[in-house]
Amino acid sequence: MTDTLQTPPATPVGAPLAQVGVAGGSGAMFDRIAARYDLLNRWMTFGVDQGWRRRAVRMLQATKGARILDLATGTADLAVVAARQLPDAHVTGLDPSEGMMAVGRAKIARLGLVDRIELLTGDAQALPFDDASFDGITMGFGIRNVPDRAAALREMARVLKPGARVVILETSQPRGGPIAWGARLYMGRVVPWLGGLLAGAPVEYKYLHESTADFPDPQAFAALMTSCGLRVLDVVPLLAGVAVLHCAERPRD
Question: What share of the chain has pLDDT > 70, as a percent?
Fold first, then answer.
């Protein structure tokens, strides 16, 4: 079967998005789609994304009273899952988009988790935290939007306590066969259409396809994590490789 979808730009992250005047993957881009972001996530993944988040938190193997950092926290979906699954933990969410976090703060208040979750504006490439200050780090659907991924991974290794884990959940592209073709068709055509229909943001949701296509394959990303001072423990494909969980730790030695 021939794939007729147009090849995305080589580096969509940080590049100006046509007609909307913001950079791909930036906080400003996510500000534009914040109001409908959760709704679109559920539609795009048919609701399975929440199960992926629960699995990511389980992989942390966090201990009682853990201090958890959730990077690219956005509307705080993953931070909320962490707070619910780890009742004694305190979760700090960090994101460059104030619009996304405004939705997240309203969600946290509605769920009665204000004393357990705090959201801060910040950049994953330069974390405003001391060395070895967190018992676990999560990042859901965010690392592909970071221009300097190596810098972000080095920062994660720096702020993790020795022996603590980071779990990164990210979209991916199955390689070869009808599943791969179907995934590209869905992300390249259906998702931008849904983005236009439900959020009035087809350009932004087209970017999501382009950034997924540009992201390294799981083995290459695992190698990048290793080069940045993390010991990779597991790489788990989800839904035939549509998404991937990367689990690593900061070595004790």
Answer: 83
